[in-house]
Design brief:
single chain, alpha/beta, Rossmann fold, 8-stranded mixed beta sheet, globular, ubiquinone biosynthesis, 3-demethylubiquinol 3-O-methyltransferase activity, 2-polyprenyl-6-hydroxyphenol methylase activity
Length: 245
């Protein structure tokens, strides 16, 4: 059962504590965050494609985000924030668990990367940001609308918001909770299936906070291909939005 959120934020302290306990293993590809390591290349490919299309970038440019500001909200120990920094962005990483931020700062230092890591959530945003990412986070917050409103408020006029989250289907319940949590591939208690959002539900809230969803792509898994982008959204999906015209 979720506890009351920290006043003035959408942070659920039980959720923050759960993910904070994973901090020491966050960068271990065989540890408790192993599934995120397998997801990351697919998510990064999607993000890069969205950026290239939105700003008509050179797909061969290794630093396409140079001169742009990015925020990764719910950054954990920096699995996405570090690649965004390598793409040239001035990156802010936010996470409600102090343990995760400590691990993120230590790892970035070892990589020679300058990332502004902060403990907190939407209340710690200092926009406008050209890019805001929040992957596998919205299903863990205490108030979805307030959370998305905070992201929308921090987005630049020509900016992009990119989210990913599990769909609320029988497949996601079986794959993520029965199978993955049941066999220890994901720590038990990571997911609450009742808090998963369908693409239609998430799209409706985004429109309600003044954003225009412009793409929704499925993130699927198969024994031969592993995680991959797909037209099928029954397990998980990525969604891109911009400010409404």
């Amino acid at each position: 059962m979720a506890s009351d959120p920290t006043p003035g934020t959408t942070i659920d302290p039980n959720e923050a504590a759960h993910f904070g306990r994973m901090a020491a293993e966050w960068w271990d590809p065989n540890g408790s965050s192993a599934m995120l390591h397998r997801l990351n290349p697919v998510r990064l490919a999607y993000i890069r494609d969205r950026l290239d299309q939105h700003w008509s970038l050179d797909e061969c440019d290794i630093r396409p985000l140079k001169g742009r500001r990015a925020a990764d909200v719910g950054c954990g120990a920096g699995l996405l924030a570090e690649p965004l920094a390598r793409l040239g962005a001035e990156v802010t990483g936010l996470d409600p668990a102090p343990e995760n931020i400590a691990a993120a700062r230590e790892h970035a230092l070892g990589q020679g990367l300058q990332i502004d890591y902060r403990v907190g959530s939407i209340e710690a945003l200092s926009g406008p940001y050209d890019l805001i990412t929040s992957l596998e986070v919205v299903e863990h917050v205490s108030d979805v609308r307030q959370y998305l409103q905070g992201l929308a408020d921090a987005l630049a006029d020509d900016g992009l918001l990119i989210l990913s989250t599990p769909n609320r289907t029988g497949l996601s319940r079986f794959m993520l909770i029965t199978a993955a949590e049941g066999t220890g591939q994901i720590p038990r208690g990571t997911h609450d299936w009742d808090k998963f959002l369908t693409p239609e539900e998430l799209t409706a809230v985004l429109r309600d906070v003044g954003l225009d969803p412009i793409d929704c792509t499925g993130l699927s898994w198969g024994p031969a291909r592993g995680f991959h982008l797909s037209e099928t959204k029954s397990l998980n999906y990525l969604l891109t939005a911009r400010r409404s015209a």
